[in-house]
Amino acid sequence: MHNFLIVYTVFSYTSGSRKHGRENYVISDKCFQTTVNRELSNMTSRLPLLDSQDTVEDESACRELSQDLFGGASGDNACRHVLVPEKFMTDILQELRSLKKMVQQLGEASANDASTLKKEFKVEEQVFHKTYYQYLKGSFCVCPWVNTESADFKREVRRLIGDNCPQKFKVMASFATSKFTQLRNQFRRMLFHSTLDIQGLSLEGLCNFLYKTFTPPGESSIDKRKQRMTVIFRAFLSSKKFQECDKFWIEFKDFYDSVQADQRPNIIELLAEKEEKRIRRYREEQDKET
């Protein structure tokens, strides 16, 4: 902890003689205010672990204390010196030490609670596990990267867990990230290690092939959003001549972002037309070979 206060001990002189004893500390208003405010600020800055309302009240109390002690001081008055009783200084130091100890204990308790909850709260053991997994697969069909900060994701997680517990949310977000990695690996295997000649499939046929496995029950595997992703995937594969690359998802992410950033409102339609021409040309070449 910082050295709380640096004070200067002075001896009082009366009628030319020195009065012995360290009865009082003499410090300037400005120095005392700056020091106390800094230490109180350090204490309250560690209080997010407490209830938000308590934090606000504590900070308010600190401001009131500062205003009571130093309010209105300006100009020459801000530089005057005051006598601070030694006991008062000792009490303040003791309070600050107690606050520091309390904050440390609360931090340790919070960390232990979070660790315990993480061990006890397992998504696989929850009644909503299957529902959550189906939600993730449906989200994957729209975009192969999960955004745990999106309003839709947060809303779904809170609906499932039934509260706003930050630790539970972190577990749910971690589970989602892990599952999306698995889904991307599965998707990549389907693209490059299938016995089906996907290059000759129509856009609708390719969409059904790619997303049928990931589509939750009751939903269509060739809806508009999945067809949109299919067009983007095929356009990217065409640029790579349908050859698997080592950094497939990294390179596809760059391509995907470029399509998202394209200002043309009909960019997907333009890509779809180009891919349909490529499909027809590929089929014609295949027919000639046979």
User: What is the SS-derived class?
Assistant: mainly alpha
Indicate the overall shape.
elongated
Largest sheet: 3 strands, antiparallel
How many runs of DSSP E, i.e. beta strands?
5
Order of helices and strands: EEEEHHEHHHHHHHH
Describe this structure in words.
The protein is mainly alpha-helical and about 290 residues long. The chain folds into two domains: about 10-115, no CATH class; about 125-290, no CATH class. The protein is built from ten helices and five strands. The strands form two sheets. It has a three-stranded antiparallel beta sheet with strand order 1-4-5. Strands 2-3 form a two-stranded antiparallel ribbon. The longest helix is centred in the middle third of the chain and has 35 residues, at about 85-120.
What keywords describe this structure?
two-stranded antiparallel sheet; single chain; disordered N terminus; 3-stranded antiparallel beta sheet; 64% helix; 5 strands; 10 helices; mainly alpha; 290 residues; elongated; 2 domains
SSE topology sketch:
Blueprint (H helix, E strand, L loop, with lengths): L7 E2 L2 E3 L2 E3 L4 E5 H17 L6 H19 L10 E5 H35 L8 H14 L8 H11 L4 H27 L10 H9 L12 H16 L8 H14 L5 H23 L1
Antiparallel strand pairs: 1-4, 2-3, 4-5
In short:
This protein is mainly alpha-helical and 290 residues long.
